[in-house]
Design a protein that fits this description.
The structure holds 2 protein chains of 2 kinds.
Chain A: E1 3-8, E2 18-25, E3 28-36, H1 43-46, H2 55-60, H3 67-82, H4 88-119, H5 124-130, H6 132-153, E4 162-163, E5 166-167, H7 173-198, E6 212-215, E7 226-229, E8 234-235, H8 240-243, E9 244-247, E10 256-259, H9 269-276, H10 282-290, H11 303-323, E11 340-348, E12 351-359, E13 365-371, H12 373-391, H13 397-409, H14 415-418
Antiparallel strand pairs in A: 1-2, 2-3, 4-5, 6-7, 7-8, 9-10, 11-12, 12-13
Chain B: E1 7-12, H1 22-33, E2 38-43, H2 47-53, E3 59-66, E4 75-79, H3 99-108, E5 115-122, H4 134-153
Parallel strand pairs in B: 1-2, 1-3, 3-5
Antiparallel strand pairs in B: 4-5
Helix pairs in contact in B: 1-4, 2-3
The chains are: A alpha+beta, B alpha/beta.
Chain lengths: 427, 156
């Protein structure tokens, strides 16, 4: 076959609305487009003139699956702007609620969105007919994550208990106790998930990515750390815009992100894993080894195993935090707004989420910038499609199309997050 | 001692999308009637929560808005424990799993309640906003009446 087009008008089993086109001529890939037509959402615009304290609640609405990520990135940006430091148990509680989000988001993606690809099912409903217990395990695992978020956050979708400086209300040790058995069950279920996914059929497909993630002196990164890559990047979050740039592409409503002078990069579980394997708990490391993973992994299809390993870690970490928890004296530290610019970068389930705000002396937002992980992965997704189709050109059309969709799903894209911005051109 | 089974009425919808609120409105009217053997709950229709909500219930009645092309205010009834809901009757969202998916997933997992009735009320307006359009508002009392009658048909 000399030329063909791989076209999916409506990507299935991804959050949000997107399409893909790959054009081949004379057995060479000539064009790849990940077309995101989810309508733009203008958050960066209507954050202007809101008070700093509203940012966590407003930005949470960007995503129903990862609201904590937005709340945490905005909170850290505001605290960076005002010189506020949150430590001790309040810092631990933030890590704990974020673990809840990783558990529910990863479980949702692994079981309902991604696994059907590897087992040849159109969707999880079909998969559930043959693998009822396995799908139930996934739903229950998601539920434990949601329970943790509801307990600490007040509710699981757009939590209401977090704020700049800390929380509105902190739990007692007794409040947290019922979660211990639930998390122990979840940890076992997550270990089963690693075993289950490690047995999936994976195409031969390695790539030389530039992975970008946070790195912390002690912990597997969630809320804090320097921004690093496997190709020499090592900066503070404040320097993000000196190194990363966003560009408009005509066929996507989501801006494309690039490393200046270098191009595409990859964020998310694979990036975190490759840059922070040594920071995982020993149980999570052992699970990874038993699944056949080394300390690095460059096959994006195996991201499903890595997501499962991170779920083990999140359960482990949540149990550790609950075990060491002592009720803090106050639920919140003092916050004094001032004219400033603040930067925050935290690890959403799908990768680094960067927020920057410029504020006046009353703490009113003058300008906002938000860069979600899915925008940052778009170029990597397109590169993967290019390389995948080039390599597997001889596959029957239907199988090739299916696997191209799978290439996109490897990234667990959250398309609605990616279209949050406003770009206004007045001609 | 009543031999009537307990009925769980689930009023589903979104308060802020005009006619998408109709399930919630019906649920609240039924709750206000304080019927014997009837519990009323509200929800958004998100799938995992739905399956949790009806866990252990013997008889469940769901009320929700639908968008299938019929006249606004049209009332559709499905016996979902034994029949598949045609996919055109529920709007698929790319952001969350909805009611039809939840029911079919539960069917695959053998987690449907023994008796599940679904009332779908055709909506006319789903824009951002609060308030039912007049045809949909007119259907509310009729649905309340029919839901009350369901109690007589469910095996005791």
């Amino acid at each position: 076959m000399k030329s063909k087009t791989v076209k999916v008008d409506y990507l299935a089993r991804v959050e949000g609305e997107g399409a893909l086109t790959v054009k081949v001529r004379d057995n060479k890939v000539t064009d790849v487009k990940l077309r995101i037509f989810e309508p733009p959402r203008f958050f960066e615009a209507f954050l202007r003139s809101r008070l700093y304290s509203e940012a966590p609640d407003i930005t949470a609405r960007i995503c129903g699956i990862c609201p904590i990520a937005y709340q945490m990135s905005s909170i850290h940006a505001m605290e960076n702007a005002f010189g506020v430091k949150v430590d001790g148990q309040l810092r631990a509680l933030r890590r704990l609620i974020y673990c809840g989000e990783w558990i529910e988001s990863h479980a949702l993606h692994i079981y309902l969105l991604h696994a059907p690809d590897f087992l040849g099912y159109q969707d999880a409903i079909q998969m559930a007919k043959d693998h009822s217990e396995i799908v139930q395990r996934g739903l229950q695992l998601k539920k434990v994550g949601n329970e943790l978020m509801t307990l600490l956050g007040g509710r699981e979708i757009h939590p209401i208990n977090v704020r700049v400086g800390g929380f509105y209300k902190v739990p007692s040790k007794k409040d947290l106790a019922p979660l211990i058995d639930r998390l122990k069950w979840a940890r076992d279920a997550a270990l089963e998930t690693v075993r289950w996914t490690s047995g999936f059929p994976f195409p031969e497909f390695e790539s030389d990515y530039e992975f970008v993630a946070l790195r912390h002196t002690e912990e597997y990164p969630i809320n804090e750390g320097r921004l690093v890559s496997n190709k020499g990047l090592d900066i503070a979050a404040n320097e993000y815009e000196n190194y990363f740039v966003e560009e408009d592409v005509p066929y996507s409503n989501a801006l494309h992100s690039m490393l200046k002078g270098r191009g595409a990069y990859l964020v998310g579980p694979l990036a975190r894993y490759n840059l922070n394997f040594d920071r995982l708990s020993s149980l999570a490391q052992q699970a990874a080894h038993e699944a056949g993973l080394g300390a690095t992994c460059t096959n994006p299809f195996k991201s499903i195993i890595v997501r499962s390993v991170e779920t083990v870690y999140a359960c482990d970490e949540a149990l550790r935090i609950i075990n060491e928890y002592e009720v803090p004296e106050k639920p919140v530290v003092g916050v004094q707004p001032r004219a400033s610019t603040g930067h925050g970068c935290t690890e959403a389930p799908r990768g680094i989420l960067y927020h920057r705000y410029r504020l006046d002396d009353r703490g009113i937002i003058l300008e906002a910038k938000i860069v979600p992980p899915t925008s940052q992965n778009q170029k990597s997704i397109e590169n993967d499609l290019w390389r995948f189709v080039s390599k597997y050109l001889s596959l029957p059309q239907e199988q090739l199309t299916w696997q191209c969709e799978q290439v996109v799903r490897n990234y667990d894209p959250c398309i609605s997050c990616a279209t949050h911005f406003l770009k206004l051109q007045i001609r | 001692m009543s031999s009537q089974p307990e009925i769980l009425v689930l009023g589903l919808g979104n308060e802020y999308r005009c006619d998408d609120a109709v399930g919630l409105v019906v649920g609240r009217r039924i709750k206000a009637l304080d019927l014997l053997n009837t519990i009323v709950s509200e929800g958004s229709g998100e799938s995992v929560n739905l399956m949790e909500a009806w866990r252990g219930a013997d008889a469940v009645i769901i009320v929700d808005a639908i968008s299938s092309g019929s006249e606004p205010g049209t009332i559709h009834r499905f016996v979902a424990d034994s029949q598949r809901i045609p996919s055109k009757f529920f709007h698929y969202s790319s952001h969350a799993f909805g009611v039809a998916e939840a029911i079919e997933l539960a069917r695959s997992l053998n987690q449907l309640p023994p008796h599940l009735i679904v009332y779908g009320i055709e909506g006319g307006k789903f824009d951002a906003g609060v308030g039912l359009s007049s045809e949909v508002a007119r259907a509310v009392e009729e649905v309340v009446k029919r839901v009350r009658k369901e109690g007589c048909f469910l095996p005791g």
